[in-house]
Design a protein that fits this description.
Helix content is 14%, strand content 22%. A hairpin with a 5-residue loop joins strand 1 and strand 2. The chain has a domain of 126 residues: Cupredoxins -  blue copper proteins (Immunoglobulin-like), CATH 2.60.40. The radius of gyration is 26 Å and the shape is rod-shaped. The chain is α+β, with helices and mostly antiparallel strands. The chain starts with a helix and ends with a strand. The strands form three sheets. The protein has a four-stranded mixed beta sheet, with no helix packed on it. Strands 5-10-9-7 form a four-stranded mixed beta sheet, with no helix packed on it.
Amino acid sequence: MGSPGKIAFPVILVLGAITGYITYTSFTAAIPEEGRIDSPYYQPLSPASGGNQTGNTGEAVQTAGGGNQTGATGGGGGGAAGGGGGPTINILEGAAVQGSPDYDPEELTAKKGDQVTVVNQDTVPHTATSGTGSSDPNSAKSFDTSIINGGESATISLAQVEPGQYDYYCMIHPYMTGKITVG
């Protein structure tokens, strides 16, 4: 029988070759293919963000009257106009970072019956929900945009909102606050 070194070296070489082959074939099988997305969390980007989604998503937007209306979403990037020239609230880019500017304008004046367009210029989801926070018993009673994804917009109907001053906040980032005065 030969010395242990003469037998061990070729065995280690063969085992290394087999391990390398298995690793190579496993990892090449796992290389992602262009256009293939295997994630339950995937959401296509909106056109405003320069993504690859085309068309409108038609997500339901909750209005102050309690009903849902299907609205075209999209816009953003500062170029979206309010529906019919009504007032617009912009959620500024970077608003999710506490202490950064969030809603523009911070205080909006509108008339009863106005349709306020809320444009999310940020890359993360936000809301504009009436109330001072989630512990407020009147939270979302007057209006709630629901989730607005980055680069999309939603509408707040002030048709059922009585004149007065209304605080609002982002349900996801409660430090984001603003006011709407309905005249």
